[in-house]
Design a protein that fits this description.
alpha+beta, 5-stranded mixed β-sheet, 3-stranded antiparallel β-sheet
Length: about 230
């Protein structure tokens, strides 16, 4: 049985498979990552969603919905169906959009959701529920059933593909697809990377100066010692 913080909980992996995008017109390509994506390097990030026991249906219905709906989601977010690789020349990460497939992991835990330590979610719930995944995996969707009938869904990916806001948008897009069967134009992603390319020749306008504050002594304020206005 798990302790109050979930450190003794064991998740048994029932199945693990790849789900591909269903749109065969998407051509393989390689996406370079921007300088902004490289700031935190290739680190795992995830979003964990917990659900109580459904009043109708059950965990197996939720898993079936992911199996049926993920191909459509990946049609819109095709980089998540690829894999993360390293450029042999530069040594920098890049995204191979080859429709290798996103992971769909199904697991079981022999404890109730109420037994987990919600006060220390980052160190207990996330580590206890999340199933390890490889560094080259672009997306690992992990559905874990609990003894109480509730379940958890972990959306696990890499920071070179999305940040926290981007991951939230993808989860919202999945919810929209699962409810309506389609994605509204307002939710369509933009995969155009041309805005991150450097100008040739390098140039910038005077408006750029207004977006940043010069790092000079007279502009620095110590909020602990400054007088209130």
């Amino acid at each position: 049985m798990a302790t109050g913080n979930g450190s003794d909980m064991h998740v048994r992996v029932v199945s693990r498979r790849l789900v591909q995008a269903s749109d065969e017109s998407i051509h393989p390509r390689v996406l370079p990552v921007s300088n902004l994506d490289l700031v935190p390097q290739t680190i795992h990030i995830s979003m964990l969603c917990l659900y109580p026991k459904p009043s109708a249906g059950g965990f197996h219905d939720a898993v079936a919905a992911f199996a049926a709906g993920l191909p459509s989601l990946l049609n819109h977010y095709y980089p998540l169906a690829g894999c993360i690789a390293v450029d042999a020349c530069s040594g920098l990460p890049e995204v191979h959009c080859n429709n290798h497939g996103a992971e769909l992991v199904v697991g079981e835990a022999d404890v109730a959701l109420a037994s987990l330590g919600y006060a220390t979610a980052g160190t207990s719930i996330g580590k206890a529920i999340q199933v390890p995944y490889a560094d080259d995996v672009a997306l690992s969707v992990q559905a874990v059933a609990f003894a109480c009938g509730g379940f958890a869904v972990g959306w696990c990916t890499n920071h070179v593909l999305v940040d926290g806001c981007g991951l939230s948008m993808r989860v919202s897009a999945w919810s929209e697809l699962a409810r309506s069967g389609k994605l509204s134009p307002a939710s369509w992603p933009n995969h155009d990377r041309s805005v991150f390319r450097p100008r040739a020749p390098p140039s910038y306008s005077a408006s750029l100066d207004e977006a940043f504050t010069p790092l000079v002594g007279e502009r620095q304020v110590n909020v602990l010692t400054s007088e209130q206005c």
